Fold this protein.
Amino acid sequence: MTLWAAGASASCSNAETTVEMNACAAQDYSTADGELNKVYQQVLKHYADDPVFIDKLKKAQRLWLAYRDAHLASIYPEANASEVYGSSNPMCQSQILARMTRQRTAELQAFLERPEGDVCGYIQP
């Protein structure tokens, strides 16, 4: 299985054209983003009684989104990406976004899994 299909649906395992691969990678990223949003909402709900934490988490998430976008722009700095980087560029960008999003989801999930009395306050995913 290719990297782009790692989290994609079974129908994507047979993608052969650039259009199909771009669509499948975009679908994979969309799925990862949906999971991120689900876990983020779970964390907000879990810590609803801690407004200081919620405020800082929201700030961190906004900054992570800015970092994610800036990081992607640093990899593909040209504004006309498809012309400069080719027709597979949407797939490549979606793969990067999906990977980064899954990593961030794991970081947020750790807030839901930290044991009572954890003196460090955070479990590394």
Summary: The chain has a mean pLDDT of 88.
